[in-house]
Recover the amino acids of this structure.
C-alpha cells in the first residue's frame, strides 16, 4: 500500500512538473559546464583530457523535460565526463 502511494505521488509530481513546463512555454536556459573526456589506457590506467567549457542547454523545471537536464542540477554539477 505504501509503495503504491509512493508511486502515485511520484507520477503526480512528475506530471505536474511536465504540465507547468508546457504551460510556461517550455522554458529553456543554458549553463556553462566543464567537459572532460575519460580515456582508458593500458595497465588499468585512465587519462582525463580537458575539452574546455561548453554551454549546455537545460530545462527550467524540477525534473528532466524535453530531453534536457534540469538547470538546477547542471549548476550543482558543473563538471561532466564523457567516456570513450
Amino acid at each position: 500500500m505504501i509503495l503504491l502511494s509512493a508511486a502515485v505521488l511520484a507520477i503526480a509530481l512528475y506530471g505536474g512538473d511536465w504540465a507547468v513546463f508546457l504551460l510556461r512555454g517550455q522554458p529553456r536556459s543554458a549553463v556553462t559546464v566543464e567537459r572532460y573526456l575519460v580515456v582508458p589506457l593500458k595497465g588499468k590506467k585512465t587519462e582525463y583530457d580537458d575539452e574546455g567549457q561548453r554551454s549546455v542547454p537545460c530545462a527550467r523545471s524540477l525534473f528532466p523535460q524535453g530531453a534536457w537536464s534540469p538547470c538546477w542540477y547542471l549548476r550543482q554539477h558543473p563538471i561532466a565526463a564523457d567516456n570513450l
Notes: Helices lie at 2-23, 71-76. The radius of gyration is 18 Å. The first strand starts at residue 28 and ends at 41. The chain has a mean pLDDT of 93.
